[in-house]
Design a protein that fits this description.
Radius of gyration: 16 Å
Largest sheet: 4 strands, mixed
Number of helices: 3
């Protein structure tokens, strides 16, 4: 079995959105306004699609991943990156800035994790 990753594409939006709806319905215990939440989720997926990656098992899409660790200072951000580099993990792209937020994608134990501030 070979696990690999590739950037999500526009054809993935509906699947990611469907999964998002499922998670909200399954785990949201408080009463929320689904008429507001679901359109927001869809817009977020559409405008942030580049942050998602397909998880491929033997070349076939098996799922999606988007993990982001958000910190509140440049110092903490750099501290995390220094630890990643010291542990010899791969930083997939740096630096990147989207909407005023700086982030790095890190390949960690075959998972892609974003660190941003």
């Amino acid at each position: 079995m070979k696990i690999s990753y590739s950037p999500a594409q526009s054809v993935d939006i509906e699947l990611i959105y469907t999964f998002c709806k499922y998670l909200i319905a399954a785990y949201e215990t408080d009463s929320i306004d689904m008429e507001k939440v679901l359109p927001w989720c869809r817009r977020k997926i559409e405008t942030s699609l580049s942050e998602y990656h397909r998880i491929l098992k033997d070349g076939e899409t098996a799922g999606y991943i988007h993990i982001c660790i958000k910190v509140d200072s440049k110092e903490k951000f750099e501290e995390i990156l220094a630890k990643v580099k010291a542990a010899n993990y791969e930083i997939l792209y740096e630096p990147a800035t989207v909407g005023g937020t700086e982030f790095r994608a890190i390949c960690f134990e075959d998972n892609i994790i974003e660190v941003c501030y």
